[in-house]
Structure formats: C-alpha cells, structure tokens
Amino acid sequence: MKENTLQVHIDRPVEEVFRYTLDSASLPKWFGSIAEEIANETPVKLGTILRNRGYNSDEWNEVKVVEFVPNESFTLAQTDGAYRVQYKYVPNDGGTDFTYYEWVGSGNLDSPTDQSVLEKLKSELEGDV
Predict the structure, then answer these.
(1) Global pTM?
(2) Sequence-ordered list of residues with C-beta below 8 angstroms from that of 78, at least 6 positions apart, any chain
(3) pLDDT in tens, 60-88
(4) Residue 22 near residue 42, CB atoms below 8 Å
C-alpha cells in the first residue's frame, strides 16, 4: 500500500480542530504510537520542523511543514524519507470533516495509520474521554 486515507466528522469548529491537531503537546493524547513531539518553533508554520518519537524508542523521526493553509490543511514531509501526511479540515454543519491522508513516493507505507487514531481524536475533542 502506497497511500492511506482516513476520515472522521468532529463536532467542533474547524479552528479548534486545526489548533488542537497542530499542537505538539496534544499529539500523544490522540495518536497512540507517539510518546512525544517537539516543534523547533511556535506557532507552527510553513517550514517548521517537528521531531517525534514512539514509546519504547530513543529514535526520533523528523518532519517538516511543507504546505500550510490555516484552518484548511497542512502537509508534513519526512526529512530523511519519502513519507508524507496531509491533514485537511472542511467545515460541515458546525463541525469539521477531518481527513488524514498519508502516502509514500516510493515503496510501501510501513505502518499505515488506522481509523482508531481518528476516533481517539474525535473523542478527545468532543470530550467523550
């Protein structure tokens, strides 16, 4: 598999969902495989470098913000590989249709994200946890 697309509707305004998903401190709360993320600058913007690591790992992954449209979308590109991920936000009925699209330019996705990650995000933002 070279690409993976996941979607969820979140009953929160686009601005709130965008802000939450862009916040490095929030990422471990909803993205279960990430233990920690650090941005080289805040607020995050085009060109920002984000470093993250998983649980039981001292190895850091590094991505760069390569596209950034506030409250619409942003794209991250792995700095030492072919992996990319785009977060997209569309207003819908007072809430947000959130799309998580990940892909690789060559090879296959090593560990595609599954829908449970977006369900956790939804739960965190809607206060169900």
Answers:
(1) 0.94
(2) 61, 62, 63, 84
(3) 999 999 999 999 999 999 998 899 999 99
(4) no
